Amino acid sequence: MGEFELIRHYFAAAPCAQGGVGVALGIGDDCALLTVPAGEQLAISTDTLVAGVHFADPCDPFLLGQRSLAVAVSDLAAMGATPLAFTLALTLPTVDADWLQAFARGLNAMAQSCGVRLVGGDTTRGPLSLTMTVFGRVPTGLALTRSGARPGDLLCVGGELGNAAGALPLVLGERTAEPAVAEPLLAHYWSPQPQLALGQALRGKATSALDISDGLLADCGHIAAASAVGVLIESEKLPLSKALLTFLGEPAAQAAALSGGDDYLLAFTLPPAELPQLLADGWPVHVVGRVVAGQGVTLLAADGQDITPATRGYQHFRETP
Question: What does the alpha-carbon distance between residue 223 and residue 287 come to, in Å, rounded to a whole number?
Answer without folding.
Answer: 16
